[in-house]
Amino acid sequence: MPELPEVEVTRLGISKELVGAKVAAVAIHSEKLRSLVPQGLPLLLPGQTIREVRRRGKYLILACPAGSLLLHLGMTGHLRLVPGGTPPGAHDHFDLLLESGVMLRMNDVRRFGSIHWTDANPMQHQLLRGIGPEPLTAEFTGEYLYGKSRGRKVALQRLLMDASIVAGIGNIYAAESLFRCRLLPDTKAGDLLLPDCLLLVDAIKDTLSVSIATGRTTMDFSRTEERPAYFPQRLYVYGREAKPCRECGGAIKRGRLGNRSTFFCPVCQH
Ligand SMILES: [Zn+2]
Fold first, then answer.
1. Going from the N-terminus, what domains does the chain have, and what CATH number goes with each?
2. How many A from CA of 251 to the centre of ligand 1?
3. What pTM value is reported for the model?
4. List 2, 5, 122, 185, catalytic entry
5. Cα–Cα distance between 199 and 184 in angstroms, integer?
6. Which of 11, 56, 58, 105 is catalytic?
7. Is residue 80 pLDDT above 90, yes or no?
8. Is-contact 229 8, C-beta < 8 A?
């Protein structure tokens, strides 16, 4: 599932073609994503110049003079840049053709992604305004996380996946960050001490930064086949049940937190 690093790498990958480009046409191949794709887009967007491609949490924001297009990639969504006129495949739902002849195409097998339009400040959109601080900014500190975790009985991994606490972190990068600072995913959030929070915040920043840097070196958005343009990550625990821990050689375990899986090393993390 695309989390902050994948969305950020996508932003970096598409910005070069999109920023300053004028929209020539919009094609909606299937309107039923997580929510209905706004039907007015083929009238609203042509002629608009994309001023900026921003990211907030897992949302991409294409800012134009008349308003902003918000894109969420859901569980399986990804974007790529294809030549205009490339016929859509089975899971290609949305195309944004630029006057340059390049087309931004959204593919999403499971259709949990979504597309929204707002003519107001996108940061105040109902989907964005409740999102917590961006983890790679100075606003996200150990002291902040310590404050937010006081009195909370929720498992630490779930706290990190709560977008109102911190933006853009899902299962993968929560598990990876917890491994990096040696804390177990089911640690009760309220039991954290301030030094734990300082280490955890550093671990989150490092994990995300390394992933973005890795993604930047491997990304290729100008591909026509239906697979994400970003990278296989070198993961330590996520998806590695029963495989040897890269640090101690012991077996990685899979656990449950509510309806979600978690992965951890019972030797390295405690
Ligand atoms: Zn280990």
1. 4-124 (3.20.190.10), 142-264 (1.10.8.50)
2. 7
3. 0.94
4. 2
5. 13
6. 58
7. yes
8. no
